[in-house]
Write a structure and sequence with these properties.
With 210 residues, the protein is an alpha+beta fold. It has five helices and six strands, in the order ααββββααββα. A six-stranded antiparallel sheet has the order 4-3-2-1-5-6, sandwiched between helices.
């Protein structure tokens, strides 16, 4: 990725914005997927003979804070909103692949829901272990070209999203990072409507789809 491209910079910024933040009493939140993807491929610093190694960097969150667990070989994240007209239902879906099984985490997906009271009707947090075959409908809806492989169109924020559904996708697959922002993308609207239906099917006690 060429970070001199404004659209690429916006993709990386949005990844950072959509990463859950640390709350009081919780372990440190993961860095954004864009920051962590490929971290195991980073080369260790080679210190020339006779030169002291640099002192370890102290974690600013808290002394001795635990490191986040290593990323799985495949992690997929989507943040997708319900229909622009009507109540705002936004979901964040994270899928970690482990062999022929998947760990699926679903929560309120928009940073505007950060103040949601845990346990309230608006609060959605679930974890499921599913077979890959059970996720086939979601995968089929997600991998259509208009969502997964079409070129990134302008990432410039549009006022009120011009009445369009918002969606952001990212993945880390064997150390390779991928991201697409489909907000304000008219070509993606019908595929996003179909994908939203699949997400609602996986969301426990979800409200009716719009």
């Amino acid at each position: 990725m060429d970070a001199s491209d404004p659209d690429i910079r916006q993709l990386l910024t949005k990844s950072e914005m959509l990463t859950p933040r640390q709350h009081v009493g919780e372990a440190p939140a993961d860095a954004s997927l864009a920051q962590r993807c490929g971290e195991e491929d980073a080369e260790a610093e080679i210190v020339p003979a006779g030169h002291p190694a640099a002192a370890p960097v102290t974690d600013w969150v808290s002394p001795g804070a635990p490191s986040p667990p290593p990323l799985p070989d495949e992690r997929y994240i989507m943040v997708i909103a319900g229909a622009p007209t009507g109540p705002s239902h936004t979901r964040r879906v994270q899928i970690d692949i482990d062999g022929d099984r998947a760990r699926v985490l679903i929560s309120n997906g928009d940073w505007r829901h950060a103040g949601t009271t845990p346990g309230s009707a608006a609060d959605i947090r679930s974890e499921q272990r599913l077979s890959l075959s059970a996720l086939a409908p979601l995968r089929e809806a997600w991998q259509v070209p208009e969502l997964w492989s079409a070129n990134q169109r302008s990432g410039v924020w549009c006022a009120g999203h011009n009445g369009l559904r918002e969606a952001f996708f990212e993945a880390c697959v064997h150390g390779r990072y991928y991201a697409r922002d489909r907000a304000c993308d008219r070509n993606a609207q019908e595929p996003l409507a179909q994908l939203w239906k699949r997400v609602v099917e996986l969301t426990p006690s979800s409200k009716p789809a719009h």
